Amino acid sequence: MNALVVDDSRAIRTILRHILVEFGFTVREASNGREGIESLNREGNPDIVFIDWNMPVMNGLDFVLAVRGDASKSAMPLIMVTTETEIESVSRALDAGANEYIMKPFDREIVREKLEILGITVS
Q: Are the C-beta atoms of residues 40 and 62 closer than 8 Å to each other?
């Protein structure tokens, strides 16, 4: 299985990478939404994408909207991973097309639960 982690924080990318590798994923990374879109166009669609909301260049909400606007990427599972905890923010992300939402800080079990909600079984 393949995952893309899009976050401007190297620490968060590293944490998610370690968790996902433990679950059997091959992980690639991008430090903003534009790099994430470029990665998708260059390397193809992964099985799951984790996106931070607040990033420079292209934020996570704009990334989700761009992915959902592209028919070749529209079914790809997207999980927003962010410090945005207001219910309005959660609603905006889900309305834009995110499939799930993880609030920082998070742990391995939260990531596992969200993957399983999306039908991705991990060890």
A: no
